[in-house]
Each structure stands twice: as structure tokens, then as C-alpha cells.
Design a protein that fits this description.
The chain is an alpha/beta fold. It contains 16 helices and 22 strands. It has a 6-stranded mixed beta sheet, with helices on one face. Strands 15-14-13-12-21-22 form a 6-stranded mixed beta sheet. A 5-stranded mixed beta barrel has the order 6-7-8-10-9. α3 packs across α4. The protein is globular.
Length: 539
């Protein structure tokens, strides 16, 4: 019985792309319900960065974390499980915040010498992390390397000759290959030709464009959506020349069968970004109206209970307009000092109620390096923000937190600049389209060498290791609220009107729109503060 149970547990871990030390396995076999414990450990490891081999200490840590979680009710929504913990009818306390930081690129973690070895380590880490996601999926856990795939050639001419002679032939074998996109081009017949590579070798993959039906169109769309340097899986057969002829492109994607975190109580979080304080086009009146609303002033009776339960304010970058970000920016500034910009914004945020926790990340206009991941805005430039004390949490980009049991991923969204030029259908006016693609690719900056700078670190911070419940972007200056496979997508727009630079770039912002979410139900709502948009909505 024990040997059978041992094999069953080992099989579970292998299917999930995990390894377990012998003493850790013996420890699990002595537990009351080893299989349930194994499933718990696998689930917990999917929500954190697990080591290559799980030791007994790791197993005990995962199980103790699970034991501390509150009891919950499960509600099935399609194939996605929504976890609603036991009801807590007591109102939120004044500063009763529940925050667990999962990922935060602080300054001490994101330094690099910029050597060739550093770049190699970055892409090797990207490959390992996303390959691990594939190894946890049933349809791709048997994926082979490009080098192995090239040895699985199928001789079509021999097969046809056997058919002509009336001899039986085996079905053409299908293989799944995982690799990084090294090269991509479009052939004269409009086929997408990509070269997949891993540390051992590479293979040329042909993604046909002329296949009919829904699957044919999906194959073509998936091939066109591939970006250089992303890690992907392609299934198909290998021809006699050693090329893979694709049948499907399989992205790492967000699993449909997963638990979605929910808060224990009716509590709200607000999502804003791109304030651009210090710009001539900063909408000060609208921002002041927003702060008044958070304080419960001039609030409709229907919103009073909602406002009373606001406990979190997320700001996804570009807190200020910055200095020298683009040519002739000085002419667009009402406050030409970076220090005074942060000081003025701190005065504004000081009016936010003390029971509301403010969580900020930097954007490309903030006083921070341009390469991702970005550490938190330095205190050297933004000391007045740090002086807000415990009420504010300044984090890096990207950051991931568990807030009231809800997994929230924050990034400014610099890579939207590359997405709108490389992904079919992606525009600044519809930022949810590229945001869905980033979730599907499980990477926030799939392509290297474009407009978005990446620091050569030994860890690829831009991989979405753990699927979030909410992903919050900025940068596009265009509000968007959408949902993809249970992930609530929010691009929070801006509090800046259209600048001359935006007019030249053809960017039409949707300012003064605030998105807020009930963390218990997951339901998003929007509130309009820009008078022009209010007139349009009521006109």
C-alpha cells in the first residue's frame, strides 16, 4: 500500500513539474492524508517561487501556510473556482489592512553589471520559469526539446509509396516542442516561419496560413501573435527536412481551473494611475473632487456605504510628470522641479483618509531608472511621499501582493509601446487587448530589444509565475475594464488632459475615470470625475 501511495504522490509532483527530496516524501507518507497534503503542497508551490527540489522544510512550510488559511465556501463559475471565505459581518477597522508582498523588486535585488553572462542568465531564467508552467499542464508536460524533435522526422514520400502499394501505415506522429522564439518571418505564401531554440539546439517551425475553418484561423492568428524572445509550445509533425509543420500554437496561458481569491468582507480597492502631477494638463480640480469623494464629501446616498468601505488605493505609476522625459517637456510643466512635484503630490495624498492604504509603483515619468524591473521611487527625490509613513507603501515595477486574500499584480505597462506595434489589433485605445496577450504569454515584456528596456538580471521578474486575480496597468491613458479567464483586467486611465505631445502622437486620453473593485465579490465599477466625460455620459 505504501509503495503504491509513494508512486501516486511522486506522479502528482512530476506532472506538476516539481521534484521532492526523499526525506520530504517520507514525511508526507506519515501524514494522516498524504494525497491531500501533496495536492496542498502543489497548489501552494504554484502561488510562490518554489525551489528546484522541495525539502522537508519547504513541505512543512507549505502545509503550515495552508493550515492558517480561513475556511472557505467554493462557488463554481464555469471551470474556475471562486473561493469565498467565511462571512465576516463586522465593519472594517480604521486601519485594518491585510497585505502580503509576493514580489517586489527592491533596489538591492535589481542591480547588474550588464555583462554577456548576465543577459544569458536572464533568458535562461525566463526559459526555465515558463517551461515549468508548461510542465504543469497535461497537454504539454510531455514537450520535447527542439534538438530531440529534429530526430523525429517523418518520411512522407515513403508513407505515400506504402499507401500506393496497399500497405498499412502508422498514423503520422505529432510532437510538442517548447522553446524560445529566436527568429520570425513571413514567407511569400504568408506562412509564419519561426525558429524555436533552447540551450541545446533549435528547430524551424512552419505555421501554415491557408488552413480553413475555425482552427485554421486560430492557428494563423496565434502564429501572427508570436513575438521574438517569448517562450512558447508548438505541436505538429516533423517533415523529412527536419522542419516542424505546426498544427497548433500553445501559449502558457492562465489556467481555467484555478481558485480565485476573494476577501472575507465587503471592502473596496481603488485603482488609478498616470496622475502626472506637475504637468500643465494635470486635472487638479478633478483630482481634488476624487479626494473629496474618498473622504465622503458630496457623495450620493447610494455610494455612501461603498465609500465608507474603501481601504486601499493603488497607483500604477507616473505619479508626477517628471523632468526631461520627452523633447520640449519643460514647456508643458507647471512645476519644473522634480522635488517640488513629489512634494505637491504628497500634499494631495495627505488628504486621503488615514484608514486608506496607498500603494504606489513607478512609471516611466517618475524619478526612477527606465529599465525594468524598476525599484521603488527613491526617497532622495520623493521624501515627502515617504513622510506619509505607514499609510503609504512604495514598491517596484512589477509588484505582486495578496490583499485581503486577493492576488493583485501591478505594473505600469511600459511594454504597451511595443505591443501596439507588434501585436495584431493592439492599440492604446483598447489596452485590454495587449493586456490579455501578456496574460496569455505569462510575461509582461515578451520581446527584448524594442522600446521597453530590460535590465540583464539573473531573475526574469517580468514572468507571471502566479496568475493574479487582478492585474492593474497604466501608461495607455485610456481606461479599460475587462476580464480574461477569471483575471480582472484594469487599465486605470489618467488624471492628465491631452498634451501637445499626445496630440502629435495621436493619443486621445480618457481622463478622470476611477475604477474601484469590491474585493469580496470581485465586481468592478467606474466613477467619472472629468466634467467632459460626465457630459458625454449624460448627454
Amino acid at each position: 500500500m505504501t509503495s503504491t501511495l509513494r508512486r501516486s504522490i511522486l506522479k502528482l509532483f512530476i506532472k506538476s513539474g516539481l521534484q521532492i527530496a526523499p526525506d520530504a516524501l517520507d514525511y508526507m507518507l506519515d501524514l494522516e492524508d498524504p494525497l491531500e497534503a501533496a495536492e496542498t503542497v502543489i497548489h501552494q508551490s504554484n502561488t510562490s517561487v518554489a525551489p528546484p527540489v522541495l525539502s522537508r522544510n519547504h513541505i512543512e512550510g507549505f502545509l503550515s501556510t495552508r493550515a492558517e488559511m480561513p475556511e472557505s465556501h467554493d462557488i463554481d463559475e464555469g471551470s474556475t473556482k471562486v473561493v469565498l471565505p467565511e462571512d465576516s459581518s463586522s465593519p472594517p477597522e480604521e486601519s485594518d489592512w491585510s497585505i502580503n508582498v509576493v514580489k517586489n523588486p527592491t533596489l538591492d535585488l535589481v542591480g547588474s553589471a550588464g555583462t554577456v553572462e548576465d543577459f544569458l542568465a536572464l533568458f535562461n531564467d525566463r526559459f526555465r520559469r515558463i517551461k515549468r508552467i508548461y510542465m504543469s499542464r497535461i497537454d504539454t508536460q510531455g514537450a520535447i526539446s527542439p534538438q530531440v524533435a529534429r530526430t523525429r522526422r517523418d518520411d512522407a514520400r515513403h508513407r505515400k509509396a506504402m499507401n500506393r502499394e496497399g500497405m498499412r501505415t502508422q498514423k503520422r506522429p505529432t510532437h510538442v516542442v517548447v522553446g524560445m522564439v529566436k527568429d520570425k518571418r513571413i514567407s511569400r505564401s504568408r506562412n509564419v516561419i519561426v525558429q524555436l531554440e533552447d540551450p541545446e539546439g533549435s528547430i524551424v517551425c512552419v505555421i501554415p496560413s491557408g488552413r480553413e475553418g475555425i482552427r485554421g484561423r486560430e492557428l494563423t492568428d496565434s502564429g501572427n501573435a508570436l513575438l521574438l524572445d517569448e517562450v512558447t509550445c508548438i505541436s505538429g509533425h516533423v517533415d523529412r527536412d527536419g522542419r516542424m509543420i505546426a498544427q497548433s500554437v500553445i501559449f502558457p496561458d492562465i489556467p481555467t481551473a484555478r481558485e480565485i481569491g476573494r476577501a472575507r468582507r465587503d471592502i473596496y480597492a481603488i485603482f488609478i494611475s498616470d496622475l502626472h502631477y506637475g504637468s500643465n494638463e494635470f486635472l487638479e480640480d478633478e483630482f481634488d473632487s476624487f479626494i473629496d469623494w474618498v473622504n465622503g464629501r458630496d457623495v450620493d446616498s447610494s455610494e455612501k456605504e461603498t465609500v465608507r468601505k474603501i481601504r486601499y488605493l493603488f497607483i500604477a505609476g507616473d505619479l508626477v510628470d517628471g523632468i526631461g522625459v520627452y523633447p520640449s517637456q519643460y514647456e508643458d510643466l507647471s512645476i519644473p522641479s522634480i522635488y517640488d512635484q513629489y512634494a505637491g503630490l504628497a500634499d494631495k495624498l495627505r488628504r486621503i483618509p488615514k484608514h486608506v492604504k496607498i500603494i504606489c509603483i513607478p512609471g516611466n515619468h517618475d524619478a526612477c531608472r527606465q529599465a525594468l524591473p524598476k525599484p521603488p521611487i527613491p526617497e532622495e527625490y520623493a521624501k515627502p511621499l515617504y513622510d506619509l509613513g505607514d499609510q503609504i507603501l512604495l514598491m517596484g515595477d512589477p509588484s505582486q501582493l495578496i490583499v485581503e486574500g486577493v492576488n493583485i499584480l501591478l505594473t505600469h505597462g511600459d511594454s504597451l509601446d511595443d505591443a501596439v506595434t507588434q501585436l495584431p489589433g493592439a492599440t492604446y485605445k483598447q489596452p485590454a487587448i495587449p493586456m490579455k496577450e501578456f496574460l496569455r504569454k505569462r510575461h509582461l515584456v515578451p520581446m527584448y530589444g524594442g522600446k521597453t528596456e530590460l535590465a540583464p538580471l539573473h531573475r526574469d521578474w517580468m514572468v507571471i509565475d502566479t496568475p493574479p486575480d487582478i492585474v492593474h496597468f497604466g501608461h495607455a491613458h485610456h481606461n479599460a475594464v475587462d476580464n480574461y479567464r477569471g483575471v480582472q483586467i484594469i487599465n486605470s486611465g489618467t488624471f492628465q488632459g491631452q498634451t501637445e505631445f499626445m496630440r502629435k502622437q495621436g493619443i486621445m486620453p480618457t481622463p478622470g475615470i476611477v475604477t474601484y473593485v469590491n474585493l469580496r465579490t470581485g465586481a468592478p465599477e467606474v466613477k467619472f470625475f472629468y466634467k467632459g466625460l460626465i457630459a458625454e455620459a449624460t448627454g
